[in-house]
Amino acid sequence: MTDASLPNGGAKSRHGSLTSVDARTKKRNTAEKRFRAYGVVAIATGILFLMVLLYAIITSGAGAFQQTFIKVPVYLDPAKLDKKGERNIDDIKKVSTFGYNPLIQNAVLKAVEDAGIETPLKKSKDMKALISASAAAQVRSSVIENPALIGQTVDFKFLASSRVDGYLKDRVKREDLARDKNIDAEHLDIVDGLMEAGVLKKTFNPAFIFGADASESRAEQAGIGVSMIGSFFMMLVVLFLALPIGVAASIYLEEFAPKNRWTDLIEVNISNLAAVPSIVFGILGLAVFIQFIHLPQSAPLVGGLVLTLMTLPTIIISTRASLKSVPPSIRDAALGVGASKMQSVFHHVLPLAAPGILTGTIIGLAQALGETAPLLLIGMVGYIASNAPDGIASGLLDPNSAMPAQIYEWAKRADPAYYERAWGGIIILLIFLVTMNTLAVFLRRRFERRW
Amino acid sequence: MSVKLTASALAIAAVAATSAAARDQVQVAGSSTVLPYASIVAEAFGENFDFPTPVVESGGSSAGLKRFCQGVGTEHTDVANASRKIREKEIKACAENGVTEIIEVRIGYDGIVFASQYEGPAYNAFTQSDIFNALAPKVMVDGKLVDNPHKKWSDFNSDLPSEDILAFIPGTKHGTREVFEEKVVAAGCEATGAMEAMIAGGMSEDDAEDACLAVMSDGRAVDIDGDYTETLASIDANANGIGVFGLAFYENNTDKLKVATMAGVEPTTETISTGEYPVSRPLFFYVKKAHIGVIPGLKEYAEFFVADEIAGPDGPLAEYGLVSDPALVETQDAIADEKIMGGDS
User: Fold this and answer.
1) Which domains, from first to last, does chain A contain?
2) Is B37 helix (H, G, I), strand (E, B) or coil?
3) Of A370, A372, A368, A363, which is closest to residue A436 (Cα–Cα)?
4) pLDDT digits over A369-418, tens only?
5) Are B332 and B233 part of one and the same domain?
6) Do A383 and B36 touch (CB under 8 A)?
7) Is residue A133 less than 8 Å (CB to CB) from chain B?
8) TM segments (chain A) (predicted)?
9) Do the domain assignments include residue B273?
10) Average pLDDT over residues B95-114
11) Nearest CA in chain A to B60
12) How far is CA B22 from CA B12, B15, B46, B64, in A?
């Protein structure tokens, strides 16, 4: 019957010779070539985008690691700093940073004169635009630390103002200066002169990596260090909560739990939780941890708890996968020689699954480290991370920021110097992420066992 | 495992409890417009006093005042920054939670400017009527109130460039929007006679005032819910657009932006402090009197904020863009006397 239903069946042979390629095969071969070409194009586009991205990040952010400094000798005038002359620390403290500004401006003016720079700016007040506002605090704190310095001439290395720094980094252009009330062309002439005289130098700036954030008028002083500590404490919370809870949950689900409707429901929910947008965890954290439990706002503890919720599904899923990949023969052998179920899990299965668990955890942590959205809602953005915590309790509970939140914060600020710092922060964050992911890959390669 | 977890949860709770009891730094929250100023002051305060640097957070005027009004006690904030005056409703909410004594501090004025791309068309001069004519849904043409027919700026003012109307204005959640509506759109509504025409057309005065604040929603007025950086990015991408900025932001980005005069007055700190430049608003912070003496450094922080060397015309706040308050001395006295709002004391 089937034969009859085939019209023209076998009337013409479809098979050509082996040596010549027929049209259909040709078509299939070109289709394959085309598909390969698509693949190459896709990968090339990916690499191109990555290159563009990396180029943009590095060119925009590299400048943040360098900062302009001015080195000048400052005469610490006793008539201004300690009027009574008793070197009483309380009297010295009464002179605010505003009392120190004239001394510093005088010192810079003197350096300009010593360098033989011709300039119409002859008043010491004119030098204000060159120096960071942080200079006065720097001098004041060293005087309070060592009152014996009063009356001496001491060398100080000050941060240059963000405009001067921007000029040396080609961010501030001479042609735009007419409208800029922060700095004039005459100032830039001085900067050029001081550069030549070696008073002004652009050097590596460790304070960007280790320092605290600064207010908007002092972009040159800001660093990512304190928010790095904030991120560190958050990761600590995530590690100490998510790892034990996640591993315990997966061991129970994988090894002990009966297969019934309830465990099925839990499994489905864990998979769904992994796909929940992170902002949802943020609003949950706001409602539960801050508004209901009354934990402090902006605290890394709360950030850590929120990120724990976000990381748990990732850790549970990867832990279950690595537990599953341990062959049943290992369990059977352990049980066969008389080990209890728990002994077989903790003595045999868990050690073998450990590399997979660690990899999953590190990737989960890396994901949590770069997360910003939930932090927006619990007040870790819009906060000036200027106090380094002293101790673990304060590290967990005192308001702080986190690295990605700090970057977001910098990108919002008015001074263009902060924009550069935001890119610089991204470089540091990327270094952390790449290191963590490399560690995960290394652990997997080094310890993973295949059967 | 569960025992250990409970133990660690208890430990966390214990740590939380101890830290809540002892707080030695001032906590500030509120307006993102005031944040830069407050952080400049907090930084200088930390440098000059033995008290720890105050903690400054943003989140908006309303959110800051809400937290401020949640109650008295070290777990609540001490100071709320606001880019507008506290509302009657908020004072009531405060009082319900026991926050009855509030010290109001006006720190100075903030100018709101109109700026466009530096290389863009010549938007050099606006009046409130121009903005109203460009953005309002109903405008006066030949003495009649009609649906806005204008497509280009030059359609109603031949001095303005022949460019499509496009304005980036602050979103409704911003305090700046209120100032924009009241001082620019509503002022233009009155000046062009549109308001009179609305009342003549049978509208009650209140309804006409409300109708005057409206802007068109056909895409020519774009609400920016983010901050000024976002407005700047939109201006960068649209040569014919104008944007609304704070004076401080404009002064930090003069290489990209060109400012327009309003009613013939150029926005500078001088013209704003004399009141010549019409679009400005006072900035405030509010101090919880019950916390003075409990939180170390709170009164000193408030006094330091409005001290001449900080908030005066030559201080760092004015340098950043704040227009200093000519009546600063009165404010200083009010803080020294801990004078509360609405009270006789």
Assistant:
1) 65-204 (no CATH), 225-447 (1.10.3720.10)
2) helix
3) A363
4) 999 889 888 877 766 767 777 788 888 888 888 999 999 989 888 888 89
5) no
6) no
7) yes
8) 35-58, 232-253, 273-293, 299-317, 349-370, 422-443
9) yes
10) 91
11) A382
12) 16, 11, 19, 22
Give the ipTM of the model, two decimals please: 0.76
Name the minimum distance, in Å, from the CA of A295 to any CA of chain B: 7
> Tens digits of per-residue pLDDT, A2-58?
444 555 544 455 566 777 888 888 999 999 999 999 999 999 999 999 999 999 999
Q: Is residue B11 in some structural domain?
A: no
Rounded Cα–Cα distance for residues A280 and B232 (Å): 30
CB A229 within 8 A of CB A389: yes
- Select from B280, B299, B326 the last residue of a domain: B280
Q: What's the domain count of chain B?
A: 2
Q: How far apart are CA B149 and CA B136, in angstroms?
A: 10
SS3 call for B284:
strand
The answer to the question of residue B297 being in a domain is: yes
Residues B157 and B244 grouped into a single domain: yes
Q: What is the CATH number of the domain that holds B146?
A: 3.40.190.10
Domain that holds residue B148: 111-280
* Structure-model confidence comparison of residues B270 and A420, the more confident one: A420
Cα–Cα distance for residue pair B82/B276, rounded to 1 Å: 24
Confidence of residue B7 (pLDDT cuts 50, 70, 90): very low
Q: Cβ B320–A218 below 8 Å, yes or no?
A: no
Tokens of residue A414, six digits: 């008015």
Q: How many CB atoms lie within 10 A of CB A80?
A: 14
Q: Which residues in chain A have their CB less than 8 angstroms from residue B309's CB?
A: 96, 98
Instruction: Give the end of a domain, one of B238, B255, B280.
Output: B280
Q: Residues with Cβ < 8 Å from A406, sequence gap 6 or more? A: A213, A224, A227, A385, A425
Which residues are A71's β-sheet partners?
Answer: A157
* CB environment B106-139: b (16+ within 10 A), e (fewer): bbbbbbbbbbbbeebbebebbbbbbbbbbbbebb
CA of A244: which chain B residue's CA is closest? B1
SS3 A217: coil
The answer to whether the CB of A414 falls within 8 A of the CB of B227 is no
**Residue B341 in domain:** no
Residues of A in contact with B47 (CB under 8 A): 97, 136-137, 140-141
In terms of Cα–Cα distance, which of B87, B83, B34, B32 is closest to B60?
Answer: B32
Q: Are residues B73 and B116 in the same domain?
A: no
Q: Which residue of B has its CA nearest to A401?
A: B57
CA distances from A130 to A97, A121, A201, A280, B247 (A): 17, 12, 13, 46, 22
How high is the pLDDT of residue A10? 47
